[in-house]
Design goal:
heterodimer, A: alpha/beta, Rossmann fold, 9 strands, elongated, B: Rossmann fold, 4 domains, six-stranded mixed sheet, two-stranded antiparallel ribbon, 8 strands, 51% helix, globular
Chain lengths: 290, 470
């Protein structure tokens, strides 16, 4: 079996992730379990603030693994993602060993000591359990995607001077994407696909209870219901779980006991980030009747 | 055809159907899906659904097709529901009222298991039509028509308020005047809509048992939003399309930026290369590339907004408007039989895309003496009155089905526009095989300007990425 073997069943995923404070839906738990058993990378897509990155961060402590993170951005390249030779150190080594023959120096300066490993190589080398998080994959250039293909399908990297390095133990790999750019079909093919949408009301209520335990239960339910109503509206940026939690924290800080028109209108800016959305929500929730 | 028996056959049949709906699923994914079934077993249906989706799907848009197909090939049960009509519990003839009572209770309590059960019973009791084996079946439409769940709204509201604890068993603070009370009606409406979807799923399942899963899964399902034909899209589908405008615009902008980057390199400036080669004895060692002036092109849209093609025109208007930061100027003109500028309306319309078409028809002079479209006079008026909108940097896109209602197509006006503009393209929402049939002047226009078939969002986005100037 090529899997990472961190979990024993889908229920096990539920329980263990809940211990770290991540409440998973059935889809999330099932897909994480499958990624674990099949040893395939997990591609997580979804709107901002639903917990894509958080998922990888929660798996790491459960598995007792080290979290290695590659943050993608426009212009990230091989030297940032994979490995780089430490040129300065190599130069020092050459000047230090002035009397040596060229052959001795050459074999010496291209050894592990002078290799700077970057996230992808780090995740593959060594036998300890690791979770590799490739964050915002869609921000990287297409060339980097090509690089990822080799790494993610065989979990091996070729360094010309050292030979091919193959993972002795596969990392649990999570790629996240906001879909600003369509990822290539080839990359998608190598991954299990998980769309992380907004949770249903029941789950969201539990999430808010976990993250903001101080908030009154009735108020939590009301908060979740209002957010659900906002999501049903045709808004430019729908509020996600992060905003729900922010709002719950705000209400807790304000010491509110129940929701009323004024309170909602005053705090709407916490959940909605565009003026037109605020106007639409004001009309939709009939806040302007006062 | 009948539903295949074994699990591997069932899985491959599911994959075949998904492929028939335009998804690209290779054998490797099918193998993964088989491994998923091996690992998960069949104990929990929702886990199987999530697992297969993870292995087979590549984008979220495919989910809308996958779910109903999954329901057909991995049905919840077989035959009539076991709970249907327990003997003596309800007198025949009064089944409908009995179902409605229980449905109202289930909606009030938001009990999803009960809703699924009720959907099954409702289809069983009310949805059957025909009586010969060849023509009979189960109809979701008939079930819903008889059950009329939407009329339960008031009753459910009274029930939830009476019991004091609405959704999820949580009461609202401060008695009956709580803030969340106003959300109640919409919440119940969403639950009813959810119930209707369950009835549709159940009806498909029952028909699939009778006719074979393959047939139902291929015919009885709506295509993904980006493959819906503009000309036949309904209101709900157009609304769904409008929601995709902004994500699509973002993707197209990235693609345009990539094209712009590519276009910026590669042209050698011969004069400056030779001049530079003098310092190396006439050998052009260092080629000098031509510098590009950063010019943002201008776009003019000329849209037919008459009834038949309005959906297509409005979607394209909103899309180009969302892309407007990519261009120095975007101007939109609408016509039915007269042409008028509507740029201002479209810009304001992004906040309320649904009312856009009504506002254009009301506030812009797009119709003259009559209400049917006339390409000839509209093109003439555009070429005459709005001539200044077109310059050597302008790309003009004409949107319409080129059906002139028998009038003069006025090719000269189009030639005039072509002569002034940098480029003219015609996007036609009809399929090429019907161009030139009946009153369509598409083929005659196509001799003057390049005409492209643009039937759905998929084709439109491909065309925009290719045709828009960078």
């Amino acid at each position: 079996m090529t899997g990472t073997g961190y979990f024993t069943s889908v229920d096990d995923v539920f329980v263990k992730l809940a211990e770290t404070g991540y409440l998973a839906s059935t889809a999330v738990a099932t897909t994480v379990y499958l990624a674990d058993r099949l040893g395939k990378p997990l591609l997580v897509e979804g709107p901002a603030g639903v917990g894509k990155t958080e998922l990888a961060k929660s798996v790491a402590p459960v598995a007792g693994a080290r979290l290695i993170r590659l943050q993608c951005y426009e212009g990230v390249d091989e030297a940032r993602a994979l490995y780089e030779w430490n040129h300065a150190k190599q130069l020092l080594r050459i000047t230090a060993g002035r009397d040596e023959t060229w052959d001795e120096t050459r074999t010496d300066i291209f050894s592990e000591e002078f290799l700077l490993t970057r996230p992808l190589l780090t995740a593959i080398r060594g036998g300890d359990p690791k979770v590799l998080l490739i964050d915002e994959t869609d921000k990287a250039d297409v060339e980097v995607e090509g690089l990822l293909l080799e790494v993610l399908s065989d979990f091996q990297v070729t360094v010309p001077e050292l030979g091919t390095i193959t993972a002795t133990r596969r990392p649990f790999t999570v790629l996240t994407s906001n879909a600003t750019r369509e990822l290539s079909e080839a990359l998608r093919r190598r991954c299990l696909f998980l769309h992380l949408g907004f949770p249903d009301e029941e789950l969201e209520r539990r999430i808010v209870r976990t993250k903001v335990p101080g908030l009154d239960e009735t108020l939590t339910a009301s908060v979740v219901r209002v957010v659900a109503a906002l999501r049903a509206m045709d808004l430019r940026k729908l509020p996600s779980v992060a905003e729900t939690i922010d709002w719950a924290r705000t209400l807790l800080a304000l010491g509110a006991a129940t929701l009323d028109d004024r309170l909602v209108r005053d705090t709407l800016g916490v959940i909605l980030k565009h003026q037109e959305d605020v106007e639409k929500a004001t009309a939709g929730l009939r806040l302007d009747t006062l | 055809m009948t539903t295949p028996a074994g699990l591997p056959e069932r899985l491959t049949a599911l994959v075949r159907t998904l492929r028939a709906h335009g998804m690209r699923i290779g054998p490797a994914e099918t193998l993964d899906a088989a491994r998923v079934l091996e690992i998960l077993g069949l104990a929990d249906r929702e886990q199987v659904r999530a697992g297969l989706a993870a292995a087979l799907l590549h984008t979220e848009g495919q989910r809308a097709v996958f779910d109903p197909v999954f329901d057909v090939y991995f049905p919840l049960g077989v035959g009539a529901p076991e709970s249907a009509r327990p003997a003596g519990d309800a007198p025949p003839g009064d089944v409908r009222a009995w179902l409605r009572d229980r449905l109202a209770d289930a909606l009030a309590a938001n009990d999803r298991a009960a809703l699924t059960r009720l959907a099954a019973e409702a289809v069983d009791a009310l949805g059957q039509y025909g009586n010969s084996p060849a023509t009979d079946g189960w109809s979701a439409h008939q079930t819903l028509d008889r059950l009329r769940p939407e009329t339960l709204l008031a009753r459910v509201r009274t029930a939830t308020q009476g019991s004091g604890g609405g959704s999820g068993g949580t009461g609202r603070g401060g008695g009956s005047g709580g803030f969340t009370d106003r959300l109640e009606a919409d919440e119940i409406r969403r639950r009813i809509e959810d119930f209707r979807e369950r009835v549709r799923t159940e009806a498909r399942r029952r028909v699939a048992e009778r006719r074979g899963a393959d047939q139902v899964a291929r015919r009885g399902l709506a295509p993904t939003a980006d493959r819906v034909d503009f000309l036949v899209a309904g209101r709900a589908q157009l609304a769904e399309l409008r929601r995709t405008v902004h994500p699509l615009a973002r993707k197209l902008a990235t693609r345009l930026a990539a094209r712009r980057k590519r276009a910026a390199r590669g042209h050698i400036d011969l004069r400056r290369t030779l001049r530079g080669s003098l310092s190396t004895g006439g050998v052009p060692i260092r080629p000098v590339l031509r510098r590009r002036r950063p010019v943002r092109p201008e776009i003019v849209l000329l849209c037919d907004v008459s009834g038949s093609v309005a959906g297509f025109a409005h979607f394209t208007m909103l899309l180009v408007q969302a892309l407007s930061d990519q261009f120095s100027k975007v101007r939109v003109f609408a016509f039915v039989n007269r042409a008028d500028e509507v740029t201002r309306l479209v810009t304001a319309g992004t906040a309320d895309p649904e009312g856009l078409s009504a506002r254009i028809l009301r506030e812009a002079a797009v119709t003259g003496w009559h209400g049917s479209s006339d390409y000839g006079s509209a093109l003439a008026e555009f070429a005459d009155r709005h001539r200044d909108a077109i310059g050597p940097r302008t790309s003009v896109f004409v949107l319409g089905d080129a059906r002139t209602n028998g009038g003069d197509p006025n090719l000269d006006a189009l030639r005039l526009i072509r002569a002034r503009a940098r480029r003219v393209h015609w996007l036609n929402p009809e399929q090429p095989s019907s161009w030139g049939t009946g009153d369509s002047a598409a083929l005659r226009y196509a001799e003057v300007v390049p005409m492209h078939a643009c039937r759905n969002v998929q084709q439109l986005s491909a065309l925009i990425a290719r045709l828009l100037p960078v």
